[in-house]
């Protein structure tokens, strides 16, 4: 099965832009989904189908895709955005996989 | 509104089985599937498998042979049974459901069930 690779941590100051990449061989063929998870809570979907934002998710969250890498971008980062972020996609055998997760720290 | 309510925490001995339930309200199990995800303490999310609205299942390769997902339509409840438990099965287990409609994409998660495997 294919893997998804994310950096373990990203740090930004409030108001700056955070970019979290996720790379995987299957990503040119499969959509990516992004989840935010705060400590002790269930994950929340913030981006689906590479670039789409569910209702209720702030506009500062966006997604993009280029080749084998998808990227979650958070513009104007706020303290409440501090959380773990996971990318997810389907692999070639119709099962799904998560990236290892990225801890976003707001300095 | 949609709610996925999971059963309570479990403590099991190695080699035993556990069955976690996920009761859906406002979410049609005859139309949509349920995914199970687990998270070991301090670790990332792990996709376990999926049960479709027609009962078809798809499991993660590493859990094949140990996991079974079933649906009881009469009670709107999905079950995940994991057998031959090991210490590294200690985790919070989540059920989740999602669907598209004319107004967008919706994704819902249960509150999680802590399963502790310890002798």
A few lines on this structure:
The complex is a heterodimer of chains A (107) and B (119). By secondary structure, chain A is mainly beta.
> In DSSP terms, counting alpha (H) and pi (I) runs of 4 or more, how many helices of chain A?
0
The number of distinct helices of chain B, counting runs of at least 4 residues, comes to 0
Terminal CA distance of chain A reads: 36 Å
Q: What is the general shape of chain B?
A: globular
**Strand segment count of chain B:** 11
Helix proportion range of chain A: under 10%
Portion in helices of chain B: under 10%
Give the oligomeric state of the chains in this entry, treating copies of one chain as homo and distinct chains as hetero: heterodimer
In words, what does this structure look like?
The complex is a heterodimer of chains A (107) and B (119). Chain A is mostly beta strands. Chain A is 0% helix and 45% strand. Chain A is built from no helices and nine strands. In chain A, strands 1, 3, 4, 7, 8 and 9 form a six-stranded mixed sheet that branches. Chain A has a three-stranded antiparallel sheet with strand order 2-6-5, with no helix packed on it. In chain A, strand 3 (32-37) and strand 4 (44-47) form a beta hairpin. Chain A is globular and about 40 Å long. Chain B has 119 residues and is mainly beta. Chain B contains no helices and eleven strands. Chain B has strands spanning 3-6, 10-12, 18-25, 34-39, 45-51, 57-59, 67-72, 77-82, 91-101, 104-109, 113-117. In chain B, strand 4 (34-39) and strand 5 (45-51) form a beta hairpin. The chains are: A mainly beta (107), B mainly beta (119). Chains A and B meet through strand 7 and strand 8 of A and strand 5, strand 9 and strand 10 of B.
